[in-house]
Amino acid sequence: MRILVTFAIENEFEPWRDRRGFRPVPPDPTQIAAPESYAAEIAGAQVTVVLTGAGPRPSAAAISLALQPTPETMDFCISSGLAGALKPSYRIGQVLAAREVRSGDIDAADPGALLQSSEALYSFAAECGATPVERFHTAGRVIGKAIEKKHLGAGADAVDMESFVILAEASRRGVPAIAVRAISDLADEELPFDMTGVFTEEGRISMPLVLAQVAKHPQSIGAVMKLGQSAKAAATELASFLDRYVEKLAAAGTGLEGRAASQR
Fold first, then answer.
1. What is the overall mean pLDDT for the chain?
2. pLDDT digits over 134-161, tens only?
3. In 186-245, at which residue ranges do the beta strands (DSSP E only) sit?
4. What is the average per-residue pLDDT within 109-126?
5. Distance separating alpha carbons of residues 115 and 223, to the nearest angstrom
6. CA separation (Å) from 158 to 47, 97, 138, 187, 208?
7. d(CA 231, CA 11)
8. What are residue 6's phi and psi, to 5 degrees?
9. Rounded Cα–Cα distance for residues 205 and 254 (Å)
């Protein structure tokens, strides 16, 4: 079995990488701007992790390359990483699995497009300890204001910037997929500044950009440190879930593939 797992940035992946000893995959010389990839064998499954970069544009380019047709097609795709809670009932580190993912401008009247996770993978995630929720919202920027979270919370449970485009490409390739995220900031929590400004065009965190934002908002230092601690805790909880989930996916083998294939 071959499983593709995506994260936006290295910090989200780090606890699972260290726990499972993922090894870097040399870039394919035939691919231009090949995404950073890692591989490990878990319970007999061949697991590939791709760091897509944060945001819809970098992640769309990365997942398109990661799912290019090859003789060894991926059996499943898991869009994972961290997300902001949109409802006050969710805690830091809680792992959510979404039945569907929405994409759209939060200021527009149009609710946006919807994509479904694989129902089999969704049910199995709940069996492995994730909280099953109805919907994630994929935004084009970091949603950091409590008022914006409240607005989105009327129609979604958590917000990220990658899941919709990951599921869209997986659907186009006929690969069953699911969106799973761990909560790194609460629904009523204001982020210290516009976090969109700390990412490069490739969707990587830039320390010079972070320091520039902190210099503009010196009162934010404590909040930045708290956010970092929350993100680390969430990534650790996500690693524990992914361990259980991938092991059980591998053990289910053909049976689960049949359940997923029936929904393609």
1. 90
2. 999 999 999 999 999 999 999 999 999 9
3. none
4. 86
5. 34
6. 26, 10, 9, 9, 29
7. 8
8. -110, 145
9. 39
The helix-helix angle for 119-127 and 254-261 (nearest 10°) equals: 140
Tokens of 39: 């591989």
CA distance between the termini of the chain: 17
Comparing CA positions, the residue from 52, 92, 82, 33 lying closest to residue 204 is: 52
Architecture per CATH, domain 2-261, reads as 3-Layer(aba) Sandwich (3.40)
Contact call for residues 48 and 37 (beta carbons, < 8 A): yes
User: Facing residues of 78 across strands?
Assistant: 5, 178
Per-residue pLDDT, 255: 62
Instruction: Give the integer Cα–Cα distance in Å for 138 and 113.
Output: 10
Note the pLDDT of residue 215: 85
3-state DSSP assignment of residue 79: strand
Is residue 3 a contact partner of residue 48, using CB atoms and an 8 Å limit?
yes
Q: What is the pairing mode between strands 36-42 and 95-103?
A: unpaired
Q: What is the dihedral of CA 87, 93, 97, 101, to 10 degrees?
A: 60
d(CA 190, CA 107): 18
The type of residue at 60 is A
d(CA 126, CA 165): 23
